[in-house]
Prior knowledge:
The chain has 156 residues and is α+β, with helices and mostly antiparallel strands. The chain is 33% helix and 29% strand. The protein is built from two helices and ten strands, in the order E-E-H-H-E-E-E-E-E-E-E-E. The chain has helices spanning 24-55, 60-79; strands at residues 6-9, 13-16, 88-91, 96-101, 108-109, 114-120, 123-128, 133-137, 145-146, 151-155. A five-stranded mixed beta sheet has the order 1-7-6-4-9, with no helix packed on it. A five-stranded antiparallel beta sheet has the order 2-3-10-8-5, with helices on one face. The termini are far apart.
Amino acid sequence: MPDEHRKHTAEPFVVSNPAKSKDESQERMQTETLCQKLDQAVELLAEIGEHVAKAAPKHKRTFDDAKAAISDLSLLLRQTPGGAAGVHRIMAPMPGVIMRCDKKVGDEVKKGDPLLILDAMKMENLITAPVAGKVVSLPYEEGKKVAKGAVLVIIS
């Protein structure tokens, strides 16, 4: 039987908080504190990754993927106006490669609109918009590898 790619709709992780904060400056401060902690985690993972590279080189990629995902999240939190309120982050349900991006930053999307295709385990997974809104960030371009949990799209 020939090796064929099957298309199906993957269920991405979606992190959202549509409730508006009463105190925007407090929320911004909490976001910055979280970002600082994420930056510390990236530094720690980089340090651990160097030790792993010497002891067990085949596991270094896991640390590199985690470091990239955490770094991306920190960057995206800083770039998103208002922190987490009203923002929907669509994360990779599994590791894979971005095969196609159907939207770009600034595009308006409706719930169910196709955003991108993630190729994972010889299957093309269609990632769709869980809500209507505007694409705020699309950090990965076609052909890039992503780790499980990597933020693929942010919609506000």
